[in-house]
Amino acid sequence: MVRRLARSGKVLTDAVADAMAAVPRHHFLPAVPPRVAYSEQDIITKRAADGPVLSWASAPGTVATTLEQLIVLPDQTILEIGTGTGYTSVLLAHLTGKGGHVTTLDIDPDITAAARDTLTATGHTTITALTGDGRHGHPDGAPYHRIVAADAWDIPAAWWDQLGRGGRLVVPLRLRGASWSIGFAHHGDRMVSDTIEPADLTPVIDHEGERTASIHQDSLVTLTWDHDQPINSAVLSGVLYRDRAVALSGVTSGRSSPVDGIWLRLAATEAGCCRIIAQQPAVTSQLCTPAIPVGSPALVDADSLAYLTLTREHDGYTHVLGAIGHGPKRHQLTDRIIAAIHAWDQDRAAAPTITLHRGTPDATTRTRLIIKGENHLTITY
C-alpha cells in the first residue's frame, strides 16, 4: 500500500511513509477482507436507518494526503474531529511520538466506543477518544498545534480559538458544491491556505449552509449551492428543455485528468457557481451531460444555466472540454465557462490562495467575498 501511494504522489515524506507502514489498516476494519481494507476506496462503516452515511474509513490515499498537508512534528498536541475507526488517530500518534498527544472527538457515542475498544485492543491506550460535538472542539486540551477534521462547510469559532497561533488546520471544506482538502496556517484573524487538494468524499448528511434542489420534474438533475448565492431553483424548473447552446474550448484533457481547477476558478469569480448532478437516465437521453455526472461545475444566472461538459475525441482517450447552456443567457454563461477553461489551461498546476477571514475582512479587498457563516472566504490567483 505504501509503495502504491508513493508512486501515485500521495505519500511524499519518510515520516508519513513510516507511519502508514507501521500501522496495520486492516486491524481497524475487521468486517472487510484485508484486500478491501487496503484498496483505494472509502469504506462505509455506519449508516443512518434511513440511508445517509454517518461514518466511513477514508481511502488510504485520502488519509496520506491529509497527513502530508498537516505536517505533524514530534511532541505536538493534535485534535482530530471525526474519529471514525481510530486508524487516523493512531497514525497521528505515531507521527507526534511519545512526547505528543492526540485527542479524537466524535459526536456518535457508538463510534467513539467502538474506536476506543479497537485502540485498546491494538495497544494504543494513550490516545484520548471522547464523545462530543466537534463544532465545539475540546477546550480542555487547547491550545493545539494541529487540528484535523473529517468534513466541514465552515470553520467554527471553537477551532479558531483552540488552534494555537501558527498552528495548522486541515479540513475538507465544502465550497460551491465541491470539497477541497485545504491546509490552513493560522494567522490570528485569518487562516491562509498553503496546500489545496481535491477531496472526493463519501457523501454525508447535508450541511446547513448548502441548498439542494431538483431542476427536473423527475429529479433526474439537481443543483447544490450555498446559502449566500442568488440562485432560485424554482425559476430553473424545466430549463433543460429551453433553447440550448454548445461551446467547445479546443482544450483537451485525458480521461482521468482532474479538472477541479476549473471549478475553483469559477468559484473565485462567479456569483452563480454551483454543482450539477445528473442521474444516468438524464445522461443516456442526452438531456444533461456534465463532464462528471456525479458532480460538475455549473453557472446560474437568474433563469439560465450552463455547465462544464466534454466531448470524446476519436482516439477514445482524449476529451475536448466545453460548456452547454440553456435559457436566455446561455451564450454568456457558456462563454464564461470557456474563459475559465482557458485560464486553467494556461497553468493547470496553479493553486489559488484561499483565505478564511474571521468576521468581515478589510473593506479594501477587491476579491469576491464568499460568506460562509460567521466567516468570509476569498480565493485569489
Automatic annotation (TrEMBL):
Pfam families in the cross-refs: PCMT
Domain of life according to the entry: Bacteria
GO biological process, one term: methylation
Protein family (similarity comment): Belongs to the methyltransferase superfamily. L-isoaspartyl/D-aspartyl protein methyltransferase family.
Keywords for the protein's UniProt record, in alphabetical order: Cytoplasm, Methyltransferase, S-adenosyl-L-methionine, Transferase
Bilayer-crossing regions: none
EC number of the protein: 2.1.1.77
Protein name: Protein-L-isoaspartate O-methyltransferase
SUPFAM superfamilies (UniProt xref): S-adenosyl-L-methionine-dependent methyltransferases
InterPro entries: PCMT (IPR000682), SAM-dependent_MTases_sf (IPR029063)
Molecular function via GO: protein-L-isoaspartate (D-aspartate) O-methyltransferase activity
Any one cellular-component term (Gene Ontology): cytoplasm
